[in-house]
């Protein structure tokens, strides 16, 4: 079998929705796993709603997810141009070809007349289908009228079906599909303004781009019979394979609204989710590997993906599940990547400057690594790491756990012993261990009774990353010139004692 050629064909009318991203992913996977070609085609014939910024945005989103394309907009290829708005001549030519072959005809019905027809059908409780009025106009008369009258071009369904009662096809996901011809009205292929309809353009493009597999959402299942009629009318003997992917719903089974910000790739990107995690979750929307494993790297997904394992049942997009996968992906990422992901949220919080020097970036990498395993998305780093940049005794004391610990005389002794010893050299891991050992001997406490007060005093929180890694990070941060200043361990302990000491006397 020759290598597959697949395409993702979005309309640039808004942000890339997770449903469309899943379509792009399954196409990409089918190509990648089989040495095929992944094509990006932009379906921008709706001039009023298609905007260049949406096109740029969706390309950025695809690249962020790692779904690069081999042919298409921005990449080129021998079947271009890859924007439908630049292919209008091609559609016009093919529409004329259909007329010549007797599979299409000009339609002179005005919009008002068509609307009247639809209203009458609605009133009679009928499905709205074009009556076929202009089909009866003899060819020579239609050709003469076209010179002076605006006309759309319609497909002649009866001619296309050649007497068959139904259009049948085999879908890779849905199996045998049968669609009665009586439910298909003579649809428009070219509008009065010479723009093609979706069902026509998609066939002309898939044909000319030599697409072997049409993989798309099952909202397009009912368009496929129309497209098959067009293929046949154009004399195409071997059709592409069709695979219609299941609908994506929310956890309650309700459809994911395109309007919800949280349903776009851009939203997850801005929240600082690792793209690997979104990719992993999207891959599981309708597909699962034979062994049922859910945590999968990009390479594992490419190696295992198979259209034969795509299910028809609606797929659930569940942010909680994504979060669980994301925390595991996050923990595997290298420091420099984590630092780059953390920079945005830290900058927004006013603690970071993109122009920071290499030492500061290296420090940010350590910071992000330290917190990574606790996070699903980098936006949450701001909350988790606030104590680093915004340390103040008042802030610490707002926490009841901190107040409780400080009211205990044993804990207070630990903090005092710690503060005395912190005055000297800055802490690194071995020095912290030695210092903790000294405090242990002096105060006669160990384990949680020793470490909990230290954590409380220096971080103002009752839980967090390992102290032996965290405290050196605080110390090193305090010596860097960062936009958000990091107070040293000594400063922290002393400020807290001073604040609570005066409180005790008053
Ligand atoms: N522009 C169509 C969409 O975004 C493409 C459908 C198809 O893949 O045929 O839904």
Q: How would you describe what is shown here?
A:
This protein has helices spanning about 20-30, 50-65, 90-100, 110-125, 140-145, 155-160, 200-210, 225-235, 265-270, 275-285, 300-305, 320-330, 335-350, 360-370, 380-385, 385-390, 395, 400-405, 410-420, 430-445, 450-460, 465-480, 490-505; strands spanning about 5-10, 35-40, 70, 105, 150-155, 165-170, 175-180, 190, 215, 240-245, 250, 315. With about 500 residues, the protein is mainly α. Among the domains are: about 85-245, HUPs (Rossmann fold); about 335-385; about 390-500, Arc Repressor Mutant, subunit A (Orthogonal Bundle). A three-stranded parallel sheet has the order 1-2-3. Strands 4-5-8 form a three-stranded antiparallel sheet. β1 (about 5-10), α1 (about 20-30) and β2 form a beta-alpha-beta unit. The protein is elongated, with a radius of gyration of 32 Å. The structure holds glutamic acid. Glutamic acid (GLU) binds near residues 9, 10 and 43.
What is this structure, in a nutshell?
The chain has 506 residues and is mainly alpha-helical.
Question: Keywords, please?
Answer:
elongated; single chain; Rossmann fold; three-stranded parallel β-sheet; 9% strand; Arc Repressor Mutant, subunit A; 12 strands; binds glutamic acid; 48% helix; mainly alpha; 506 residues
């Amino acid at each position: 079998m020759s290598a597959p050629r697949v395409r993702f064909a979005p309309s640039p009318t808004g942000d890339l929705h997770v449903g469309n991203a899943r379509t792009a992913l399954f196409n990409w996977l089918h190509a990648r796993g089989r040495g095929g070609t992944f094509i990006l085609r932009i379906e921008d014939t709706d001039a009023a709603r298609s905007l260049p910024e949406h096109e740029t945005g969706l390309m950025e989103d695809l690249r962020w997810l790692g779904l690069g394309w081999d042919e298409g907009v921005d990449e080129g290829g021998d079947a271009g141009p890859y924007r439908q708005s630049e292919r209008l001549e091609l559609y016009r030519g093919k529409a004329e070809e259909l007329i010549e072959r007797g599979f299409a005809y000009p339609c002179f019905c005005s919009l008002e007349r068509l609307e009247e027809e639809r209203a009458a059908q609605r009133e009679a409780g009928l499905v709205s289908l074009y009556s076929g009025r202009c089909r009866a106009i003899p060819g020579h008369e239609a050709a003469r009228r076209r010179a002076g009258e605006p006309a759309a071009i319609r497909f002649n369904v009866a001619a296309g079906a050649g007497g068959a009662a139904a259009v049948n096809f085999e879908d890779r996901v849905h199996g045998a599909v049968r669609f009665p011809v009586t439910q298909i009205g003579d649809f428009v292929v070219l509008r009065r303004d010479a723009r093609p309809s979706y069902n026509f353009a998609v066939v002309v493009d898939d044909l000319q781009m030599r697409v072997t597999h049409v993989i798309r959402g099952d909202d397009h299942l009912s368009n496929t019979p129309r497209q098959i009629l067009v293929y046949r009318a154009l004399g195409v003997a071997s059709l592409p394979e069709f695979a219609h992917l299941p609908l994506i719903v929310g956890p309650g089974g309700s459809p994911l609204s395109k309007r919800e910000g949280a349903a776009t790739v851009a939203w997850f990107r801005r929240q600082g989710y690792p793209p690997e995690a979104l990719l992993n979750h999207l891959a599981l929307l309708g597909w699962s590997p034979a062994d049922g494993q859910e945590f999968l790297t990009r390479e594992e997904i490419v190696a295992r993906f198979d259209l034969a394992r795509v299910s028809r049942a609606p797929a659930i997009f569940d942010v909680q599940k994504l979060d669980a996968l994301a925390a595991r992906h996050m923990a595997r990422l290298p420091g420099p990547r984590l630092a780059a992901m953390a920079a945005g949220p830290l900058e927004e919080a006013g603690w970071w400057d993109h122009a920071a020097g290499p030492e500061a970036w290296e420090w940010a990498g350590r910071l992000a690594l330290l917190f990574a395993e606790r996070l699903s998305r980098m936006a949450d780093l701001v909350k988790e790491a606030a104590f680093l940049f915004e340390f103040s005794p008042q802030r610490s004391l707002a926490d009841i756990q901190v107040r409780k610990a400080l009211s205990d005389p044993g804990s207070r002794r630990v903090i005092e012993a710690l503060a005395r010893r912190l005055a000297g050299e800055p802490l690194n891991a071995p020095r912290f261990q030695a210092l903790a050992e000294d405090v242990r001997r002096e105060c006669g406490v160990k384990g949680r009774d020793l470490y909990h007060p230290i954590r409380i005093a220096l971080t103002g929180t009752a839980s967090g990353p390992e102290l032996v890694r965290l405290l050196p990070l605080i110390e090193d941060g305090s010596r860097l010139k960062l936009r958000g200043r990091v107070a040293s361990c000594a400063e922290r302990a002393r400020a807290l004692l001073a604040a609570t000491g005066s409180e005790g006397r008053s």
